[in-house]
Amino acid sequence: MRLLLFLSLLSTVHSLKFLAYSTQFARSHSNFIARLSDVLVESGHEVTLLAPVLAKSIGGPFAKKAKVISVPQCEEARVVDDFLNRVSANIWVMKHSVQMIKEKKQLNAIKGHACLSVIDTPGLSDSLKAEKFDAAFSESADLCGPILFHLLGIDKWAATESVAIRDGFEITQTPSNPAYVPTLMAGVGEAMTFCERLSNSFSFIATQFMISTVYSGIESAVRERLPRLPPVKEILATNSLVFLNSEPLVDFPKPSSARIIDIGGITVTEEGYNPLNETWSSILDLRPKTILLSFGSMARAFTMPEEYKRTIIETFKKFPDVTFIWKYEERAHHISFGVPNLIESTWVPQNDLLHDDRLSAFITHCGQGSTSESIDAGIPVIVIPILADQLRNSHQVERNGIGIRLEKGDLAKEGRLEEAIKEILTNDGYREKARKVQQMVADRPFPMKEIFVRNMEFLGKHGPLRQLDHYGRHLNFFQYYLIDVISFVLIFISAILSFLFIITRFALRRIFRSKAKQE
Ligand SMILES: *[C@@H]1O[C@H](CO)[C@@H](O)[C@H](O)[C@H]1NC(C)=O
Questions:
Q1: Is residue 308 a contact partner of residue 384, using CB atoms and an 8 Å limit?
Q2: Which residues contact 406 (CB under 8 A, 6 or more apart)?
Q3: Catalytic activity, per the record (predicted)?
Q4: Rounded to the nearest whole angstrom, what is the distance from the C-alpha of residue 277 to the centroid of ligand 1?
C-alpha cells in the first residue's frame, strides 16, 4: 500500500533538474535569481545555482534551498568592490541613468574575464554537463549565463529578468512601444507630453546601446578564447520564455506575447515576513507614528551629498511625534546624534517592519524589491528614486495612488520632503489605495509562484519552445517596420496621381485649345 502511494507520488511529481546562473554583482539581481531557485526547490525540483562572484561586498549568493556552486572572484574583479563604492556616491548626483555607460565600460571587460574564469574552472563544465539539466535560467544581461548554457548544450532556457520591463527584440521577440510604455530607465509615466515622448524614445535607444556595450564587453573577452561562438544575439534569441519581474495589476500595460510571462512580486510573497523582535517592537512603540527610510543597497545612504543629509535631518526634527528609522550604513557618522526621534541602523528587517500595523509610511528609493514589498504590505510610500528602473517604478506608484513621488534633487530643496511627509500622514487616501492594491494582488487568480513553476516544468518537458518564436526576428529593419511596403504604396499612389494629373492636364489643354480655335 505504502509502495503504491510512493509510486503514485513519483509519477505525479516528476522532479526536474534546473541550472540557474547569477553573477554576484548587484544585490537585487542576485536576490531575484536566488529566490526563483528556491521556489523551484520548494516545488520538488533540483536546482543548481552557479554563482561567480564579481563583487564580494554584496554578500551573495542568497539561495537558502538550492545547491550553490560559487566561483571565487577572479583576479581582474578585485577592483569591483571599490568601483561600486565610487559609483554609489556618483549616482546620487547623476542627472540621467544613461551616464552609467561611462562608468560601466571598464566593468564590462571585467565581467568578460569573470565569465572566462567560470568557463576555465577545471572540471566545472564536465561536471555540469554530466548533470544533464532539464532546463536553465539566467538574466539576459548576465550574458555569461546564456553563453554557458550554449556551451553546455542546454537548449531549453528562460530569461528571468529582475526588472519589470526588458526592451530588446533579440530577447523578447516582442515589439516595444516607447510612444506610451515607459522604458526601463526613463523618468516618465504613461501619459507623456511631446518632450517626455522624446525623452522616453531617447532613453529607449540609449538603454539598448548600454546593454549592447555590456554584451560586447563580455563577448570580446569570451570570443578570444572561443572564436567559433555564434553571435551573441543568436545565442540570446534561443531563449524559450522571458519572465519579467512585473505585476500587471500595478505596472504600465505593455505589448506582450505568449513567450513573455509576468511574475512580479514572486520573490516577496515567497519570502514571507516575521513578527518583529522585542528591540524593534519597542522602537515602534516609542511614538504614535513611525516612518521607515531606506535607499536600498546600491545607493548607500552615507554616500549621499551632505546637503541631502541635512535636509533629511532638519525635516525629521520638525515631526517630534514621529519616530524615523533610517537604514544608514556608516555608524561612525553618528547621523542620529542630537536627533531624539531618529533611530539609525546599518540593517533593518525591512519586510517585517512594513507588515507591522504601527508603521505609518515608508520612504524608499523604489527599487523593484522594495516596491513589491510595499505593495505586498499595503503600506503608503514616499518614493525618491535614485537611478535606473527606480524612476519607472516611482511613476507606477504615482499611477496607482499609493504614494507620493519626489525627485532626488528635491532633497536639496527646503520643504519638499516635509510637505510629502505631512501629506502622507494626514491623507488617508494613500493608505486606502495601498490596501486595495494589496488585496487585489493577493487575490490574483493564479499565484505567481505557480505560474513560474508550471512554466519552467513545461519548458523542461517540452522545450525548446521554438513554436513561440516570432518570425519578425528574421526580418530586416525595412521589412519589420513595413517601410518597404509603405514606400511601395506611396510610390504607387503618387504614380497614379501623377498619371491622372498628366492625363487631366493633357485633356484640359486640348479642350481649351479647340475652344480657342473655334473662337
Ligand atoms: C532584534 O534584532 C536585531 C537585529 O535586527 C538585533 O540587533 C537585536 O539584538 C534583536 N533583539 C532581540 C531582543 O533579540
A1: no
A2: 382, 383, 384, 416, 417, 420
A3: glucuronate acceptor + UDP-alpha-D-glucuronate = acceptor beta-D-glucuronoside + UDP + H(+)
A4: 6
Q: Is residue 102 part of a domain?
A: no
For residue 496, give every residue at least 6 positions away whose Cβ sits within 8 Å of its Cβ, in sequence order, or none.
none
* C-alpha cell recorded at residue 279: 528591540
Distance 284 CA to ligand 1 centre (A): 14
**Same-domain check for residues 229 and 161:** yes
Q: Is there a domain that residue 9 lies in?
A: no
Strands 289-294 and 322-327: parallel
| CA 45 distance to own-chain centroid | 25
Ligand 1 binding residues, C-beta < 6 A: 277-280, 349
56 and 193 together in one domain:
yes
Considering only CA atoms, which residue is closest to atom 3 of ligand 1?
Answer: 279
512, 468: one domain: no
Distance 279 CA to ligand 1 centre (A): 6
Phi and psi torsions of 355, nearest 5°: -85, 0
Question: For residue 98, is it within any domain?
Answer: no
* 138, three cell numbers: 539566467
Nearest CA to ligand 1 atom 7: 279
Answer yes or no: do 188 and 47 share one domain. yes
- How many A from CA of 88 to the centre of ligand 1? 28
- Residues making up the chain, counted from first to last: 519
Angle between helices 100-119 and 80-90 (to 10 degrees): 160
Domain count, the chain: 3
Residue 279 CA: nearest ligand 1 atom is 11
**Residue of 273, 278, 279 to test ligand 1 pocket, by largest number of atoms within 8 Å of CB:** 279
Which amino acid, 475? Answer: L
CA–chain centroid gap for 392, Å, is 10
* Minimum CA distance residue for ligand 1 atom 6: 279
Tens-binned pLDDT, residue by residue, of the chain (519 aa):
455 444 444 445 589 999 999 999 888 899 999 999 999 999 999 999 999 999 888 888 999 999 999 988 888 888 888 887 777 778 888 877 666 666 677 788 888 889 999 999 999 999 999 999 999 999 998 999 999 999 999 999 999 999 999 998 889 999 999 999 999 988 899 999 999 999 999 999 988 888 888 888 888 889 988 999 999 989 999 999 999 999 999 999 999 999 999 999 898 866 678 999 999 999 999 999 999 999 988 888 888 999 999 999 999 999 999 999 999 998 999 998 999 999 999 999 999 999 999 999 999 999 988 999 999 999 999 999 998 889 999 999 999 999 999 999 999 998 999 999 999 999 999 999 999 999 999 999 999 999 999 999 999 999 999 999 999 989 999 999 999 999 999 999 999 999 999 999 999 999 888 888 777
The structure's pTM equals 0.90
Helix (H) or strand (E) holding 361: strand 359-364
